[in-house]
Specification:
With about 575 residues, this protein is of the alpha/beta class. About 35% of the residues lie in helices and about 20% in strands. The strands form 4 sheets. Strands 4-3-5-6-8-7 form a 6-stranded parallel β-sheet, with helices on both faces. It has a 6-stranded parallel β-sheet with strand order 16-15-17-18-20-19, with helices on both faces. Strands 11-10-12-13-14 form a 5-stranded parallel β-sheet, with helices on both faces. Strand 15, helix 16 and strand 16 (about 425) form a beta-alpha-beta unit. Helix 9 packs across helix 13.
């Protein structure tokens, strides 16, 4: 990277260099420390800048982490964005590099994950002539990003990349895509590297907040739902303070898991069917009213009326439009939740929902007691829940748990309750299998001292397991657990229910995924008996290398779900 000169007027810097130098300097200014990629000549200048050129200084400007499949690079950058709450960076080559990234970018869009994707592009002077990997990418990416554009000249690279990072990290967060023609990326220019300003705090409407407090004061059976944006907006402390001030029962969703830790008396996620079915007011914070939340319909069960719904979101466009909401408020979630707590304190009448909360606590305790049977099941073949019965005692409070799969990961969602926020990763509402290895790579870099546990269905494992090679090459120890039932469980059992038979739902029974990991330079073992699960997991945690525990589970045990997401 060529020399940087500070201007006298402000803290901005002038940089002379090629297009890669300019882009990397801006990314660094926005806090990026790692570039995730799969090698391609269209984007070589970005690599040159990331490693610091031929001199290769230590440490380099950015860590350059190369993967085996482009989606993994984007999934890793998305995980970094989720865990750090600032945009992650992925770089892909032109044409198939970009198209391979589409599913991962879509996941980031639907999950509200801050992400910047830089793509190569065929040279300007050859565009339209059929050069290698020539494709006009932005029209493909526009529907699944906050912005998709081509950077026209080398002079535009620094301001365009700066705008991309600002937009990706602004509420409501999401991915931004830029491609740069090869000839422009290799060209040189002098550009201003701007100072990164603090984000603007969007104040909520004070009257709307007061109305929500007043509505809650009329409730007899309220429930507070905390979703991923509570974490992404840095509102986890404010959310817990609000819940405890109101003494309101709480159900967590997505990365909202852990805002109230496992065992908290107000956490009633295991009684969510009762909480959602019988509540009269549902306050949903930082989560879309999608299939995971009954499309926003609460109450109406056991003689209860349909509940009034309050939607608290980080940006106005996130307020649900497909279902009526009683009240809504948009803005910085930390400020909104603190303002709601203050409005509550100012009410003359503040009900206490001790009976309702007690009923939900009792239902939670009953559910936990019932869970003990399957978590300790001593069956042959192995009940998939038994894996979690063995895993839970081994997890540290700051362990990062990643789900990538259907039925097997649904059991995880039911039984794994984080002790801290920011410790649970899943694909979100897009439900994209194959995201797990990338997420594990990102999590290991962001949380170098924490346990990182990747839970894989055997179907999901087949989509990304080759990137264990990436874990090995970059010395990133991760514990992987495969629930291996030899089928696509999320499809097999519903198809049987609908048709009385199933097709295209079987995999090879007992596939030795542990041997695949060993062949790639990691370690692992197969588990066939329930009593062997715990010792195998302990060996995995002690190994300090990528280690896969391949547990053969009963294919006839489906996850007992109440919705299929349609």
């Amino acid at each position: 990277m060529t020399g940087i000169e500070r201007t006298e007027a402000d803290d901005s810097a002038l940089l002379e260099g090629h297009g890669g130098d300019l882009a990397v300097a801006v990314a660094r200014a926005h806090g990026v420390t790692t570039m995730f990629t799969l090698s391609g000549a269209h984007v070589f200048p970005l690599y040159d800048a990331a490693v610091g050129g031929r001199e290769r200084p230590e440490p380099p400007p950015l860590r350059l982490l190369d993967v085996r499949n482009e989606p993994t690079a984007v999934f890793a950058a998305e995980a970094v964005g989720k865990l750090t709450r600032t945009p992650g960076l992925a770089v892909v080559t032109a044409g198939p590099g970009v198209t391979n990234a589409v599913s991962a970018v879509t996941q980031a869009r639907l999950a509200g994950s801050p992400l910047v994707l830089l793509g190569g592009r065929a040279p300007t002077h050859r565009f339209g002539a059929g050069s290698l990997q020539e494709l006009d990418h932005p029209p493909l990416l526009a529907p699944i990003t906050k912005l998709a554009r081509t950077v026209g000249t080398v002079d535009d690279i620094a301001p365009a990349v700066d705008d991309a990072f600002r937009l990706a990290g602004a509420r409501h967060r999401g991915p931004v895509f830029l491609d740069v023609a090869m000839d422009q990326l290799y060209s040189r220019a002098t550009s201003v590297i701007p100072e990164v300003a603090r984000s603007v705090i969007e104040q909520p409407d004070a009257d709307a907040v007061a109305d929500i407090a007043a509505l809650l004061a009329t409730a007899e059976r309220p429930v507070l739902v905390l979703g991923s944006d509570v974490w992404l907006d840095g509102a986890e402390v404010a959310a817990r303070a609000l819940a405890e001030e109101l003494a309101i029962p709480v159900v967590t969703n997505g990365m909202g898991r852990g805002v109230l830790p496992a065992g908290h008396p107000l956490l009633v996620s295991r009684a969510r069917a009762m909480a959602f079915g019988r509540c009269d007011v549902a306050v949903v914070v930082g989560a879309p009213l999608d299939f995971r939340l009954g499309y926003g319909v609460f109450g109406g069960k056991d003689g209860a009326p349909v509940a009034k719904v309050v939607h608290v979101v980080d940006a106005p466009e996130q307020v649900a439009q497909h279902v009526p909401v009683e009240l809504s408020v948009a803005g910085d979630l930390r400020v909104s939740l603190a303002a709601l707590a203050l409005a509550w304190e100012q009410l003359l009448r503040r009900p206490r929902w001790s009976e309702w909360a007690g009923d939900l606590r009792e239902a939670t305790q009953v559910a936990s007691a019932g869970a003990a049977a399957v978590l300790g099941a001593d069956t042959d073949p192995i009940h998939p829940a038994r894996i979690y019965g063995e895993l839970l005692p081994l997890l540290a409070d700051d362990a990062v748990v990643i789900g990538d799969g259907g039925d097997f990961v649904s059991f995880a969602g039911k039984y794994v309750e984080p002790a801290q926020p920011g410790c649970w990763l899943d694909p979100g509402p897009f439900g994209c299998l194959g995201a797990g290895l990338g997420a594990a790579i990102g999590a290991r870099l962001v949380r170098p001292s924490a346990q990182v546990v990747l839970l894989l269905g055997d179907g999901a494992a087949g989509m990304s397991l080759l990137d264990v090679d990436t874990l090995v090459r970059h010395r990133l120890p991760v514990v992987m657990v495969v629930g291996n039932n030899g089928c696509w469980g999320l499809e097999k059992h519903p198809m049987r229910m609908l048709y009385g038979y199933d097709v295209a739902a079987d995999l090879r029974p007992g596939t030795p995924y542990d041997e695949i990991v060993r062949a790639l330079g990691g370690a692992g073992e197969v588990v066939r008996r329930p009593e062997a699960i715990g010792p195998a997991l302990r060996r995995a945690f002690d190994a300090q290398v990528p280690y896969l525990v391949n547990v053969l589970t009963d294919p006839e045990i489906p996850y007992p779900r109440s919705t299929f997401g349609v």
